[in-house]
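Quick check before the chapter quiz. The format below is the same one you will see on the exam, so make sure you can read both the input and the output lines.
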Amino acid sequence: MSPTIGLRESKKVGTRAALVRCALELAEERGYDGFTIADLVEMAGVSRRTFSNYFNGKAECLAAVSESWIDAAVKMISDAPAEVPLTDLLRGVLDHVAEQIAGSRLAFMVMVESVPELAAAMNTCDVAHGEKIAAIISARTGIGSDDLRVPLLAEFCLAAGRTCTQRWLARGAAGEKASLARDLDAAFSLIDFAGLLDLRKN
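Here is the expected output.
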């Protein structure tokens, strides 16, 4: 890759990240319906055309905030020592995301639950998230990505995180993180990760 191409791609990544960051800031300050794309591009210092190069609309831009959660999760799994069980890693990743939600992203998740188009955009993002998690599970375990268990485990993790978070928000227990952790423990108890992964030795 030439330095020029590298710089161009880096600028694109930076512009996209700035749009997502500004959208989140505006949404948390004014609510989802309290700002327009015009407000967003003005804050980010880009044109409406530039915005359209990255996103189809406000909901898609806001939903992209979840990409940083998944990227951090993938890095946590990738950087962990080989002897750490995958079950512990995946459970730890969900704990990490839950901590973010319970801390600085609670208002955003409440917004997701109350705005149908934003919830739909988040569900669309989950497709890409599942592919990223499946890829790291495959790399971590040595099980081929074409093995049915790999995408199923990835989808289970996403579903567990999403369902437990929705239940937690519905209970109005925003200040009580322990209840979210208990639900995650219960969800992970439903799957015999060790048994599934031992099958790769056969």
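If your answer matched, good. The chain has two domains: 3-62, 65-201.
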